[in-house]
Design goal:
5-stranded antiparallel β-sheet; single chain; Immunoglobulin-like; 6-stranded mixed β-sheet; globular; alpha+beta; about 750 residues
Amino acid sequence: MTPPRLPLSRADAWALAGLLLLALIFFWPVTTGLGWLPHGGGDLVSFLWPTYSYAAQALRAGRLPLWNHSLYSGAPLVADNQSGLFYPINLLVFLLWPGLPYLALEALVIFHVWLAGAGAYLLLRVLLAQSDAPAPHWARAGACVAGTAYMFSDVYVTHVGNLNILAVAAWLPWVLLLLEHGLTRRSVGCCAAAGAALGVAALAGHAQLTLIVGAAAAAYGLWRVAAALRRRDWRASAQLAALGLLAVLVAFGLAALSLLPALELTTYTVRARLDYAVAAEYSLPWQGLAGLVSPLLFGRGAAAAWGSWPRVELGYAGLAALFLAGLAPLRSRPGWPRFLLALGLFGWLVALGANTPLHRALYTFVPGFASLRVPARFVLLPDFALAGLAGYGLARLPLLPRRRVLGWALALAALGAAVLLGAWLSVPGHAAHLPELRAALLTAGLLLAAALALTGLRHLRLAPAFLAALVAADVMALGAWVEVDRSDPTLGYAHPAVVAFLRSQPGPLRIDNAASAWAPDAAARLGLEDIGGVSNPLGLAAYATYAGAVGSRGSPLYNFLNAQFVLADKGAPPGDAGFVPVFNEDPALDVYLNTRAQPRVRLVTAVQVVTSGEAAFGALHAPGFNPEQAVILDSTSATVPPPPAGPAASAAPTVFYTAYAPEASAVVVRTAAPAYLVYSEVWYPGWRAWVDGVEAPIYRANFAFRAVAVPVGEHTISMRFDPPAWRAGLALTALTLLALAAWGAWAWRARRATREDS
């Protein structure tokens, strides 16, 4: 049966505005100017703000930032999908908000929390229009409950500092809304739009959450196909499968310009394939299921957490919402409540990670799953399912007998108390946390009593509004305070005198950070270059291995990195006498000159050829090796064997830059003997080199860097970052957009012709 169209009314517009108001109230520190988000800054200030700032500055300068030269001695930017470079909402903010203040990222957090709630609201409005809700105001209140419970669920509270997680998760209800409309109406346009929404979500920049959203969409599509097969409706099942495949192709095509480079990058990071013990880290413990009843039992927030496991999200979406979810009509048609229940159970089983065999099976058999950590994030699916079921439960409440409601309330009270007490007793050292148990039992009891009391007023017209308000008060009161910070998290970027000094030095140059007062990724925002940066799960494994094994500051391997200046906390020299203080006008930092730092590029004639990365690393750390005088080349990095070196030159070689930019450079060299131009620039596929305009191979040098063979004489060596994966992804995305535009134009003309004929 094809459902009727659902024209949105003024009341729906007010409901969506109300959800926005709730988001603004929830994030009161930002909206009132009294604080910052999140507590301690998190990834929002340490990684995303500088990364987004780097991208925004490059775009405003007219440069497409394929390469990030500011951190880790250089790394791919487009391939790191965490950069969110092509996410349309990010692009709009990058281009329209000059300087990208920290407030811009906080605003993006608030917007995406509202986007999640708005999507859940609209999805439930569509679904409840097909159900047996007794009156429109009950259905609208149910949709409000779904939106509120989802947007303030535990994933959103826990990951306020992970904007890319929130951004991807916000698109889950939108993808399902469009897919539901497309499959129900057999609409090619709506299924393509569902694929587009999933593709946009992928561009927001979090692989694991994209997989979770994609898994939910795939589960819904398979559920619809299975239902058609049970009816032996072969034609319908084929149509549904084709429409689902269309959505997948559109999603992949739109995101290809980010996905293809990201897939290539994965093979060069530590995430290529994780050991199962690592992949299962941050699994949800069985005791964490008590988080369904109360988020207070094991302490909410990083500072209050006391469980015997690493802090993870526990899946709280409101006890009032859980009470309403238990009233959902699981036997109704077309069966969305049953699908939501199954989706939620699947999410719980995966979130439990190593505690169930399902996660191990997915790790073994599902491509890409072995690259993911933190199984607990799959509680997004139970949170979403619980929010949707709560909406159904509220809408159905007037149809239920009082005995049914009271029986469920008593059962939930008994079960909830047992779960809280059992989980508390099972954790070592629980006796010291009796106040947490009391707080959990008290708040859960009060919320359940309030929900039950309000159900007794269901004959009143405002009863559904009161219940929706209780759900909002529940999740907001227990979550709005968790990530508030009274301290400015951006102070690590506020060193204008140091920045001015470093920018005044001739370049290109790199810095090294040994100071707690300087943000690890500050170079990306401030237009500098750093040999390090904040820990990045998608960092290049070879460079991370090299940097982690250089030894002390001032060693030959360290000096090879071209770290000319070192930032240190006031009065805390970073090394031996080779580091000379040169700037002390900042109240928190001193700047030291590394007098032994090596130039960015150099000519060497002594070479050692190896045939593997392991051999290169061993030769690098062999006694007597000095990168200033010799180079280790990995012959597997280029198809042409490196030419032999000639005799030592009688005159000193000359090397100087004539052009330097993140994605391209030019160096002029003069040498009296065959040599190798060695860069302390990170090797990565996609870099190309030319010697006097003739393309030449780039060798992996000194385990993680680049080198080019140079013949006798004066030559110009040019390098450019031109990754084939990016070009292929861009072409695929462009073709997808063209195909969608052509189909849209054809469909519009066909509809216009039909109207004219009628």
